[in-house]
């Protein structure tokens, strides 16, 4: 697994009151064979007039052939998500910015 892309920009403005944060997740998969699948998990975060962030992780997964590769997607996302959360918090905590800490999510809802 590796970070394929990461972007962060902030205006330098401090939010005056609690500000709405828009978060969207995207999952792309590429089934390479009966036992191999590449997955990209990305997250777009926007805090109006404050900051924008995009993070994309990529990983390759392989089964022993006894498990259909299509059934691995939920597990792949469950493995990747903590790393994505960590990157978001790490990057946003560095530039004198209030860190963004993504909540734990229901992976089943993300895959629908």
Major sheet summary line: 4 strands, antiparallel
Quick one: how many beta strands?
4
Would you tell me which CATH topology applies?
Bacterial Protein-export protein SecB
Can you list the strand order of the major beta sheet?
1-4-3-2
Which percent range fits the helix content? 10-25%
Output the radius of gyration: 16 Å
Strand content: 35-45%
CATH homologous superfamily name?
Answer: SecB-like
Number of separate structural domains: 1
* Overall average residue pLDDT: 88
Element-by-element helix/strand order: EEEEHH
The total of helices stands at 2
Level-2 CATH architecture: Roll
The chain-level structural class is alpha+beta
Entry keywords:
112 residues, alpha+beta, Bacterial Protein-export protein SecB, four-stranded antiparallel sheet, 2 helices, 23% helix, 38% strand, elongated
Structure characterization notes:
The protein has 2 helices and 4 strands. It is an alpha+beta fold and 112 residues long. The chain has one domain: SecB-like (Bacterial Protein-export protein SecB), CATH 3.10.420. A hairpin with a 4-residue loop joins strand 2 and strand 3. The longest helix is centred in the C-terminal third of the chain and has 21 residues, at 73-93. The model has no long low-confidence stretch (mean pLDDT 88).
